[in-house]
Amino acid sequence: MIKRFVLSGGIQALGIGLSALTTIFISRVLGAEDYGIIGYLTSLTVLFALPSFAGLPQFLVREISKNMGAKRFKKARSLISWSFWYVVGLSSLGIIGYVIYLNYTASDKFNKDIILFSTSLILLRPLLYRTVAILNGVKLNYLSQSIETVLFPLLVMSFCFVHLQYFEEIKALNVVQYQVISLTIIVITSNFYINNYFRVAKFPIKNNKTDWLKGMLPFIAIGIVSGVNSELATVIVGLTQESADVAYLKIATQVGMLAIVSLKIINIITAPTLANLFNDENNFQAQNVLKKSVRLVSLTTFPVIVFIFFYSHEFVEFMFGEEYVNASVLIKILCIGYLFDVLSGQVGTVLIMSGLESYSMYGVLFSMVLNLILLVVLTPIYGVFGSAIALMVTMICWNILANVIIYKKLKIKCWVH
Q1: Terminal Cα distance for the chain, rounded
Q2: How wide is the angle at C-alpha 190 spanned by C-alphas 184 and 192, nearest 5°?
Q3: Does residue 8 have a pLDDT over 90?
Q4: Is 415 among the domain residues?
Q5: Does residue 120 lie within any of the structural domains?
Q6: Strand (E) or helix (H) holding 355
Q7: Could you tell me if 17 and 254 are in contact, meaning their C-beta atoms sit under 8 angstroms apart?
Q8: Is the dihedral of CA 105, 106, 112, 114 positive or negative?
Q9: Could you say which of 5, 243, 259, 291 is the most buried, measured as most Cβ atoms within 10 Å of its Cβ?
Q10: Residues near 73 by beta carbon (within 8 Å), at least 6 away in sequence
Q11: Which domain holds residue 188?
């Protein structure tokens, strides 16, 4: 596991570095106001795209891993083919809803061109998540990570850099355009690779659609609630506060996610293994995997979080500029929640891979309701700082609840011990 962690960590580190450079570059050249607009529109596109990808990545990883392991290749290939049209169909509905929503709520706030281009993200991002999930399902983790974490920010950064060689300034619209172009390139090439690798065209969709949809229902519910929960703060801040406040919150959450990148790496590596172990009812070996993984993640993450917590002001000023120093307080608040998240272990992955989707759904639903209540109460009083407090409290409560459920049902300890 340590060898795979180091290799995946190298890819993730490269991707995180490129993403950080892209974020720093874009936030500096755009300024807090325009960067906040991009952050708000990005969150909206995620919300309207949710029905098309909610639960799909987790479902694909589990089912493809199981089918490939059992040598049911034909079923795995049919599932891959079906998932493409599933995403395309529901994304189309999401695009319609997105355009209608912005037309009635923010038609004067945003340029029509940026709205037009941002609609493409509702289709392209779910297709990217689908590709990554398929590759993870067959344990091509390094390739999937390279596509998601390295190639996308590299392309966006390259397009922005070339733009500035010919024009004096770059605007929010240009950034969205380059995101769309980059995702289009990645989706087309990766889909071509998948079709050839699995030879999807030779295996038409069988009468498994109903079974797949039934199997996905818990994943869909969890995915929608989780997605709404993760973007809720940005949307509420965008509706009630200034665009610059959205930028501060986005910077803070991105720095926090940077700090816990090792948790994401270990989730990617262990998800297929845990799916097979729980399928074989081998909870003892699953506990060993989880015990090692949480210790490894805690060891690599704790020093990073402590450093960012105590030097958040200097870190933000150096990386993003003085215009974003208000984000430093938000980072301190969120670091508490992220530290608790790391020490709590892989609760989300365990609930999904062990077949406890219904319990996960109820837990995430509770978190969303709690988050919404806290955001509505605290944001009007404390502004974006209240939103950060709401996110921190929600993270802590969710991890406690999830660990209690897992221990009661599986007698497995996910937390560091």
Answers
A1: 18
A2: 100
A3: no
A4: no
A5: yes
A6: none
A7: no
A8: negative
A9: 259
A10: 67
A11: 2-410
Instruction: Please check whether residue 342 is in contact with residue 200, taking contact to mean a CB–CB distance below 8 angstroms.
Output: no
Q: Is residue 10 a part of any domain in this protein?
A: yes
- Amino acid residing at 135: L
For residue range 285-303, what is the model confidence (pLDDT) as tens digits? 889 989 988 888 888 888 9
Query: Residue 2: exposed, middle, or buried by beta-carbon count in 10 A (0-12, 13-18, 19+)?
Result: exposed
- CA neighbours within 13 Å on the CB side: how many for 227? 23
Q: What is the pLDDT of residue 20?
A: 76
Confidence of residue 195 (pLDDT cuts 50, 70, 90): confident
| pLDDT, mean of residues 190-215 | 68
Other CB atoms within 10 A of residue 163 CB = 17
Please give the structure tokens belonging to residue 221.
Answer: 């519910």
Give domain status of residue 298, yes or no: yes
| pTM (2 d.p.) | 0.78
Q: Is 327 left (phi over 0), alpha (psi -120 to 50) or beta?
A: alpha
Cα(2)–Cα(210) distance, integer angstroms: 40
What's the number of domains the chain is made of? 1
Between residues 113 and 373, which one has the greater pLDDT?
A: 373
Spatial separation of the C-alpha atoms in residues 3 and 138, rounded to whole Å: 18
CA dihedral 55, 60, 66, 72 (to 10 degrees): 140
pLDDT band at 13 (very low <50, low <70, confident <90, very high): low
Instruction: Name the nearest CA neighbour of 337 among 176, 183, 229, 411.
Output: 229
Compute the distance between CA of residue 59 and CA of residue 232 in angstroms, rounded to an integer. 24
Q: What is the mean pLDDT of residues 164-178?
A: 90
